[in-house]
Design goal:
Blueprint (H helix, E strand, L loop, with lengths): L8 H11 L8 E3 L1 H7 L2 E5 L10 H9 L4 H6 L1 E4 L3 H12 L4 E5 L5 H9 L3 E4 L4 H15 L2 E2 L6 H17 L5 E5 L4 H13 L4 E7 L4 H7 L24 H7 L2 E5 L1 H14 L10 H8 L1 H4 L3 E5 L1
Parallel strand pairs: 2-10, 3-4, 3-6, 4-5, 7-8, 7-10, 8-9
Antiparallel strand pairs: 1-2
Helix pairs in contact: 1-8, 3-5, 3-8, 5-6, 8-9, 9-11, 12-13
Length: 304
Amino acid sequence: MSETFEITPADVEEAARRIGGHVLRTPLVPAPRLSELTGATVLVKHENMQATASFKERGAVNKLLTLNEDERERGVIAMSAGNHAQAVAYHARRFGIPATIVMPETTPLVKVENTRSHGARVVLHGETLYESAQRARELAQAEELVFVHPYDDPAVMAGQGTIAREMLEDEPDLEMLIIPLGGGGLMAGTAVAAKALKPGIELVGVEAELYPSFFNAINADDLPVGGPTLAEGIAVKTVGVQTLPIVSSLVSDIVLVGEDLIERAVNAYASLQHSLAEGAGAAGLAAMLKEPGRYAGRKVGLVL
């Protein structure tokens, strides 16, 4: 299956051993009220319980722990407007690795302050993540820092894949995983891990309607990309070079969800699951609200 992919199931296994004890093994929780709402049997993987409230810690920790002594001393650099920034900064400090994070000038102040509070040097540059990424690469070269990409990196993808491994260990009869899609790191890791453990499992990716990057790439379509979205965590204009082949091979469908559905899903998590979800984290539930008939009667895993 994975001969041509950047990561193999063995890479995910190794990542699981490496990150054990550094990130939380989050619970997979039955969600009876979300099940009633959608007509499916819904289980939610509560990645919002991680120290920085997102799954991004898995990939960040796996990447940081693969660095050699020299790389650790020089330090790492990442570009991100949010969760990846905080994950890299938080764990780099734990491991005594200097971290620089480049964030767009438009990043909400609270996210900038959170990242600084983890001890990282924050550089604000550019209007968009694309411009931040260019600056991060320039700094990486000038200062000989290791670039930690938010999704297009095998160590990061393998780290995120540990989620699917845990979900299927806890609930082997899951029939389907519905995963938010930004740059594709979470989905690529999840797909490789899940298909190795359960070849028949169905994988559905979810993008914000305003950012149909994978939808366009896989369907050779040309829908417009851009605009303000509640799901800024998956508002990615360019798909990963390394994630795209995995997503196009292993994912059965990519669903686009509008802002109204994302908002409904955030509200449903709050009122029915008593859980705080950001827009990107609620995208999987939004897809179920869009076409409940498609998921009715099936056992579905969501990542929050």
